[in-house]
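Handout, section B. The chain below has 119 residues.
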Amino acid sequence: MLIATNGRGDVVQSPSEPAIGTMLAGLEQGDHLILERQDESQDGHWYIQVWFRDHDTYQLEYRDGVPAEHYQTQAESQDEVLQALLSWVAGKPARQEGFTWTNIGHWFTPDPEGECPTA
């Protein structure tokens, strides 16, 4: 099941494309929207999220199950962000949507014990 939530606590189960567009358009600066796939048969967390940042920019992130598969990018166009969200909902890889995605999985994956960070 797909669930959409925003920073104001609004929750929409199985949101339609127009509902996702409305939730995105309603974001105020500092607010966020998360689309999460919940499936008990799959381990991990599967979601895409967007924050409406200062200077009318959007920060997009998605996670494919495990912390090591967590990616981030920036966008300035609400239309581009909407297309990325809808593509993810449709099961298309977000990386194919014309954005430059950076893997930030190391932010969420602890270093192996006993290893010193490299300088």
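Note. The longest helix spans residues 78-89. Compare this with the example in section A.
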